[in-house]
Amino acid sequence: MSGKIQVGYLVSYDYELLKNSLPTIYKESDTIFLAIDKNRKTWKGDAIEINPDFFDWIKAFDVDNKTVIYEDDFYVPTLTTMQCEVRERKMLSAKMGIGNWLIQIDADEYFVDFKSFISNLRKYDSYLKNPKKHPIQFCAFWIMLYKYTPTGILYVDKPLKAIFATNYPEYSMGRRIKGRQIYTNNIVLHESLSRSEEDLRFKLENWGHNVDVHKDFLSKWLKVDESNYMNFTNFYYLQPERWKRLGFFPTKDISKLKKIIQEENKLNVLNFKLFFKNFGQWFKYLIKS
Predict the structure, then answer these.
(1) pTM for the whole thing?
(2) Where on the tree of life does the source sit, at the highest rank (predicted)?
């Protein structure tokens, strides 16, 4: 089988969430790279701390010795936060090695069925032979966890496309490259916003989108709870109208959400929609070539 399954994480202020994410991808990965700023800086330059106990946990969890700690200087004062992000993703992919499937996941992203995602990648192994000539990227669908409540979790009630893998990591923004997209029927729980107010405020100041967050986002996030969420609309942190409605999971146990998602038909992407999206991408890049 050509090419390895190389998984990379950008490890920063929310490193503890890796304890939820890493178990979802561990078995199917060949190597797992953890990119950590050696000076413990965010992309904005703010200081973070990583408890030494975290590395003890990694050592104990990594029974197959798959994990590589990659420390480097990922903060550059003259770059924007997004430019720092793209730079770090490219540096990480260089460590992971061109000629392999390069999968980048954030600590707050949890695959529901990573084995299925890898099966989709392997159908395109021929693209690993000359990746520069035939760049390609693979999408799964986020279920965006919005906010914890006393008895459950609010979430955006429509699956959202997100890019996770490529054969040629010439990233232009985040994990996005200028190449054909392959849509896969895979769900990833994304705990991007479902955190304490203090942690969310810190993230909004230090992530790649820090200058783009809508001015009303945080005030709405603070107001919404499990008793009133149905009275609000437009929740996205950039263009609010892109996230029309929220739903509610009646549990705060991440491990139980897989079953709920499988039973909620509206949270699964229909195969005929995937077919037409993939056909459109194939035809678009056929014309370009």
Answers:
(1) 0.88
(2) Bacteria
